[in-house]
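In response to the reviewer comment on reproducibility (Comment 2.3), we provide here a single inverse folding case reported in full, input and output, so that an independent group could reproduce the run without further information from us. The structure tokens appear first.
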């Protein structure tokens, strides 16, 4: 995995330079540079508007007691899209625009969900000072009466 990531970061600038050369030859220098500036402005707008709305949605999901995995994934993908749009380059802009399309995000989420296991845990109140626990062979934690409190 590390080698693939290294290869990606090695090839990304080369792909971006090639895109600049091809697009610059096709439309000229100033329209190419204007496209880069416009995509950076679009990226800033995306991060500001869509990112804030996704954070509010995330808060409401957590507030209702649901597991916000989908909201977190959407927020991360939209944030990554905005960041990719901020970076100068047409290839990164293409990936950023693709991440802004909801069906693409849904497909990517389904792909990641099939390969990632999410484990939920709930934690009670933090134990007080002097807390000691003893393990019994069957996995039960044995506490004295002064070492626990009801919920």
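Designed residues, in position order:
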């Amino acid at each position: 995995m590390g080698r693939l990531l290294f290869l990606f970061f090695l090839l990304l600038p080369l792909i971006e330079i090639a895109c600049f050369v091809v697009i610059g030859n096709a439309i000229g220098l100033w329209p190419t540079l204007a496209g880069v500036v416009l995509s950076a402005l679009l990226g800033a707008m995306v991060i500001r508007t869509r990112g804030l709305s996704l954070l509010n949605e995330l808060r409401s999901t957590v507030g209702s007691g649901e597991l916000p995995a989908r909201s977190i994934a959407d927020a991360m993908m939209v944030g990554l899209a905005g960041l990719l749009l901020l970076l100068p380059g047409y290839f990164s802009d293409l990936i950023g625009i693709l991440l802004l399309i909801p069906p693409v995000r849904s497909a990517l989420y389904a792909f990641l969900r099939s390969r990632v296991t999410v484990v939920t845990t709930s934690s009670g109140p933090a134990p007080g000072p002097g807390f000691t626990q003893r393990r019994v062979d069957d996995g039960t934690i044995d506490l004295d009466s002064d070492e626990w409190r009801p919920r």
